């Protein structure tokens, strides 16, 4: 397969495209420059960000030049897309710090050596704008009626849309214009909730530069259960190991619904489609292999091969011979806490394996609470110094959630 468009299409990346015939022909006949924006609203990307990141990575692998825009300028405004209320306003210092961490995460997917890819901060041009000149040159090309028809604005109008957020589409379109003028960028990609914003940029490039530009959006991913991709009851699946442990990141992918495994292999790995097809064909207990490959490949892409090997070995130890591993989430308690015995209910709540004492009671009553692979039989049981093995305890809630308790003398 020589055309990246067909690769992205077969992997399920493409939701909408401005001109499919033109874009397919262009991607086949020439090497283009494309871009996606990443607003540093947090100090880490999360699993939901992996679709656009992987799209840029595939573009580069097929010889095209990706630009990752670090949206420090647009973050100061706040994107209303997908939000029912205004985003929290961050300080310039917070935005810069967040951007540096995101820059490092993107570097695992894109090769920036020799200008093969670029990472550019839109603060470079947005923070220098003269407001009156900007309104006269750019703002006059935007129809308020058309902007209000965009899904992002329609949703927010019900709860209240601030004037500062209303400017976001204009600024994103201006990004496209600047990238076209400076770097010859002719394709912007993004989530489907960005369709209106991206088309506004296509229109602005056409109006002011008289040039063709294209738009492509990805589906907004949900799991087979309808949950937003990258979200769990415990929170976001962060790519930063300081925000989500290596063990928990790996286990998230091992434990995805069977129906999602093949789809996620297409989105989040570079495995050939033929290999993915063979993994999708596995059934029953063999599906565990499919999800293990998924977890390993995504962890390798995000954290590196050594980390992926460590996470896989830890999972095999835990689910096989019951051994422990460094990547399992840990917390510290003192020996004195166990001197007279610590109630299992309090222990599981403290470890975060139960949200409340009532949750802990239900977990134990259902036979799902374990200490050192020993099932806890009653809610009155206490854990004392005799249960500590080589300075630690291994707790398990259900089949999949672990916490290692490191017991210190002081």
Short synopsis of the structure:
The chain folds into three domains: 4-218, 3-Layer(aba) Sandwich (Rossmann fold), CATH 3.40.50; 245-319, Orthogonal Bundle (Tyrosyl-Transfer RNA Synthetase), CATH 1.10.240.10; 330-408, RNA-binding S4 domain (Structural Genomics Hypothetical 15.5 Kd Protein In mrcA-pckA Intergenic Region, Chain A), CATH 3.10.290.10.
Separation, N- and C-terminal Cα atoms: 61 Å
Name given to the CATH architecture of the largest domain: 3-Layer(aba) Sandwich
- Residue share in β-strands: 15-25%
CATH class of the largest domain: Alpha Beta
Number of domains: 3
Cα-atom Rg, whole angstroms?
25 Å
Flag low-confidence runs. Answer: 321-326
Q: Give the spatial strand order of the biggest sheet.
A: 1-6-5-2-3-4
Q: Helix coverage percent of residues?
A: 40-55%
Describe the largest sheet.
Answer: 6 strands, mixed
Mean pLDDT equals 88
Question: How many helices does DSSP assign?
Answer: 19
Kindly report the CATH topology of the largest domain: Rossmann fold
Tell me the CATH superfamily of the largest domain. HUPs
Count of strand segments:
15
Q: Report the structural category.
A: alpha/beta
Taken from the alpha-carbon principal axes, the silhouette is: elongated
């Amino acid at each position: 397969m020589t055309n990246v468009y067909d690769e992205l299409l077969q992997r399920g990346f493409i939701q909408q495209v401005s001109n499919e015939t033109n874009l397919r022909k262009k991607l086949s006949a020439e090497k283009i420059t494309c871009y996606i924006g990443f607003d540093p609203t947090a100090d880490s990307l999360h699993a939901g960000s992996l679709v656009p990141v992987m799209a840029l990575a595939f573009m580069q692998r097929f010889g095209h030049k990706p630009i990752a825009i670090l949206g420090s300028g647009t973050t100061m405004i706040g994107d209303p897309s997908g939000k029912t209320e205004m985003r929290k306003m961050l300080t310039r210092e917070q935005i810069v710090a967040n951007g540096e961490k995101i820059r490092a995460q993107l570097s695992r997917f894109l090769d920036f050596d020799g200008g093969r890819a670029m990472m550019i901060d839109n603060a470079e041009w947005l923070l220098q704008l003269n407001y009156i000149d900007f309104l006269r040159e750019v703002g006059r090309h935007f129809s308020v009626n058309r902007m209000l028809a965009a899904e992002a604005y329609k949703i927010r109008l019900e709860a209240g849309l601030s004037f500062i957020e209303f400017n976001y589409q204009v600024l994103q379109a201006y990004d496209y214009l600047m990238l076209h003028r400076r770097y010859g960028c002719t394709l912007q990609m993004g989530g489907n909730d960005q369709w209106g914003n991206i088309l506004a940029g296509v229109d602005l490039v056409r109006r002011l530069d008289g040039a063709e530009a294209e738009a492509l959006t990805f589906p907004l991913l949900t799991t087979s259960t309808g949950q937003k991709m990258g979200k769990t009851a415990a929170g976001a699946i962060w790519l930063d190991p300081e925000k989500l442990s290596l063990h928990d990141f790996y286990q998230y992918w091992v434990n995805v619904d069977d129906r999602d495994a093949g789809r996620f292999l297409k989105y989040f790995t570079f495995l050939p489609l033929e290999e993915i097809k063979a993994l999708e064909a596995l059934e029953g207990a063999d599906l565990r292999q499919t999800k293990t490959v998924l977890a390993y490949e995504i962890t390798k892409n995000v954290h590196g091969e050594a980390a992926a090997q460590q996470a896989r070995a830890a999972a095999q130890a835990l689910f096989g011979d019951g051994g422990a591993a460094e990547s399992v989430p840990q917390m510290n308690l003192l020996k004195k806490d166990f001197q007279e015995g610590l109630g299992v209910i309090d222990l599981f709540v403290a470890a975060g394996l139960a949200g409340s004492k009532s949750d802990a009671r239900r977990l134990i009553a259902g036979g799902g609470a374990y200490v050192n692979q020993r099932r806890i039989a009653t809610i009155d049981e206490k854990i004392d110094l005799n249960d500590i093995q080589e300075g630690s305890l291994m707790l398990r809630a259900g089949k999949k959630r672990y916490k290692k308790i490191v017991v210190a003398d002081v």
